[in-house]
Design a protein that fits this description.
Elements lengths: L1 E2 L5 E2 L15 H11 L2 E10 L5 E12 L3 E3 L1 H11 L1 H24 L4 E5 L2 H5 L3 H12 L6 E6 H6 L1 H13 L3 E7 L7 H5 L4 E4 L1 H4 L6 H17 L2 E5 L4 H9 L4 E3 L9 H12 L2
Parallel strand pairs: 4-6, 6-7, 7-8, 8-9, 9-10, 10-11
Antiparallel strand pairs: 1-2, 3-4, 3-11, 4-5
Helix pairs in contact: 2-3, 3-5, 3-12
The protein binds ligand C2E and calcium ion (3 copies).
Organism: Duganella aceris
Protein name: Bifunctional diguanylate cyclase/phosphodiesterase
Length: 279
């Protein structure tokens, strides 16, 4: 396996590299996709709710299959999680995203950060800290420019192990974000126990704002909690100006959603950064 450090994940195999067969399972297709370099990374802006300035990007994996087209991560990540391919794909994504951030910064001429999803299996893998160190060293990023997104579930599988990994992540100054906050099965006690910096409010709580009283109450409670615990909040899946205004008025600092930027290829993200400099 070879990480090109940029752009695509390529695994070289001896000989065989025939045309894609019909009716092969998605899983078999995935191994082929890794060899053929069909995986790529998209980047979605995370913006300041007040100024709308891009602060960072979330890295989102894409699989561009020659005949199936774009296979959504909701379909292939669970398979990769089951067969372990996520360790290879995740390591590639982390390194490539760090390298990409350097290029984004050169264009933006200011510090930005990169947020990368870490799956439960990746998080538990023995090699994970080596992978993290390699990505930071290879890219020359500062640890503080890296946000690692994990879910409540990842923490709860083995909290003792999680605590030790998280403390090693924070030794490297990487920040920890809780993804899909509020949707997992866990108690709030983990916010006290673990060194968490960011809460990402799941789109499920944003979608029906500002109309839904219940979702409003949940968002307010999260924002209040975050304020008192000194955590940052990113609202996910913001699609309308009304949602943005509602959240911004209640002190939500960061927004991520189709309203302020869809996930995009690196060159499109670069163009967006260039354009924002001339505003
Ligand atoms: P996630 O981490 O919660 O990522 C946010 C998802 O919401 C992304 O879906 C994004 O495209 C979508 N989204 C963002 N803004 C909006 C919006 O305004 N409206 C709507 N309707 N959707 C929005 P995507 O890219 O399909 O990814 C789905 C999930 O797959 C991710 O959910 C994450 O759990 C997983 N995933 C994606 N890339 C990676 C990766 O590199 N590694 C791992 N482990 N998981 C990944
Ligand atoms: Ca995420
Ligand atoms: Ca999320
Ligand atoms: Ca989600």
């Amino acid at each position: 396996a070879k990480e090109t450090g940029k752009g695509r994940c390529v695994v070289y195999s001896q000989g065989h590299s025939g045309p894609p067969q019909h009716d092969i399972s998605l899983e078999a297709a995935m191994f082929q996709a890794v060899r053929e370099g069909e995986f790529l990374l998209y980047y979605q802006p995370i913006v300041d709710a007040q100024t709308r300035e891009i602060q960072g990007f979330e890295t989102l994996m894409r699989w561009k299959h020659p005949t199936l087209g774009m296979v959504p991560p909701a379909r292939f990540i669970p398979i990769a999680e089951t067969n372990g391919l996520i360790n290879l794909l995740g390591a590639w994504a982390l390194k490539a995203a760090c390298v990409q951030l350097k290029q984004f910064e050169e264009v933006a001429k200011r510090p930005l950060y990169i947020s990368v999803n870490i799956s439960p299996r990746q998080f538990r893998n023995d090699k994970f800290l080596d992978v993290l160190d390699d990505a930071i060293a290879f890219s020359g990023l500062l640890g503080e420019q890296l946000v690692l997104e994990i879910t409540e579930g990842t923490l709860m599988i083995d909290p003792v192990h999680a605590e030790s990994i998280l403390s090693k992540m924070t030794e490297r100054k990487a920040r920890i974000a809780i993804d899909d906050f509020g949707t997992g099965y866990s108690s709030l006690a983990y916010l006290k126990r673990f060194p968490i910096s960011v809460l990402k409010i799941d789109r499920a709580f944003i979608r029906d704002l500002p109309g839904s009283q219940k979702d409003g109450a949940i968002c307010n409670a999260v924002l209040d909690l975050a304020k008192h615990l000194d955590l940052s909040v990113v609202a996910e899946g913001v699609e309308t100006v009304e949602q943005l205004q509602y959240l911004e008025q209640r002190g939500c600092q960061y927004i991520q959603g189709y309203l302020t930027g869809k996930p995009m290829a690196a060159n499109v993200a670069l163009a967006a950064l260039k354009e924002s400099m001339h505003r």
